[in-house]
Amino acid sequence: MPNTHPGMSVMPTVWRPQEIGEAYRMKQSLGETAVYAAGGTLLRTQWEAGTAVLPAHLIDLSAVPMLAGYALEPSELVIGACCPLAALRKDPLVQTAFPLLAEAVRNIAAPSIRNLATLGGNVVSRIGDSLPALLADEAELIWLGKNGMQAEPLEDWLAASGSEQAGRVLVQIRVQHGTESVNGAGTMNDIRSAPLLKVDSDRSASVRIYHKVGRREAFTPSVGSLAISAGMEHAAGKLKEVRIAAGGGQTIPKRLERTERLLERHADPLGEDCAAEVHRSAMDEFEPVGDLFASRGYRKMTVANLLVAELWRLRERFA
């Protein structure tokens, strides 16, 4: 049975603000007795499992226009915090211009859940499987708080405790894109469990890789999730602007910056010698949280193996 708020014997009172400022003021007034909600899929799971307290008040954000939908603008994708995962999954423009995010969303839960679950909810959980993809794409979060609207890099927010900004409401997730990702040039090979490649010319390519490993596809927390973004000069076999992010289970995802630098500086980043170094680096740098289903060491090994396997696929692709 769900836990209840101390002194509660009834279900929460549901508030339905019509604009973002109203939602924020409600939260400031109600304090810790209220939580924001939209799709509610994660919250419902936590309440049923007894891992979170059923609050006295729910602030339903689903009617706030500013939080709905998404827009593909000239330099970025702007996603409202209440945008359903399914909407992003189905859009061919998002799939082409933002393949990491599209692939991550495709691997979250079942279709019926994706119709309700929102990207904002997946983000604010701090462990959502969209986060490695968003980290690799260097996403930015837009919050409404006591100082008005403020932008914050996703990476910085994940690294902080967040307690000093209690009560803020997530408004948007913004993801920058390069012009070459949206003008239709080149060829996009969207193959399951394979690198997402955009061949810009005979000399260069954009590499986007997302991979999730779980005990049962889509329905349980991942053992490990990995996202890679890089530019590749395939004539020289060099990688540049490498971004690698990893997560899984109850682990807060993070960038593997030392491993990124290793790949950028190595003379042969797709060679066998580098693969061994990358595996050691990832094992050393990734610090997952273990549980009864998958130990810390097993999660480390999973992510390190995924990374080396995807690099090997790139080697075969451009050999």
How would you summarize what this structure contains?
It holds the Pfam family CO_deh_flav_C. The protein has 319 residues and is of the alpha+beta class. It has three domains: 10-60, Uridine Diphospho-n-acetylenolpyruvylglucosamine Reductase, domain 2; 65-176, Uridine Diphospho-n-acetylenolpyruvylglucosamine Reductase, domain 3 (2-Layer Sandwich); 187-318, 2-Layer Sandwich (Enolase-like, domain 1).
Domain count: the total is 3
CATH homologous superfamily annotation of the largest domain: CO dehydrogenase flavoprotein, C-terminal domain
Structural class: alpha+beta
- The whole-number mean of residue pLDDT values reads 84
Helix fraction? 25-40%
Question: What do we call the CATH topology of the largest domain?
Answer: Enolase-like, domain 1
Domain FAD-binding PCMH-type: 7-180
GO molecular function, one term: oxidoreductase activity
InterPro entries: CO_DH_flav_C (IPR005107), CO_DH_flav_C_dom_sf (IPR036683), Diverse_Substr_Oxidored (IPR051312), FAD-bd_PCMH (IPR016166), FAD-bd_PCMH-like_sf (IPR036318), FAD-bd_PCMH_sub2 (IPR016169), Mopterin_DH_FAD-bd (IPR002346)
Protein name: Carbon-monoxide dehydrogenase medium subunit
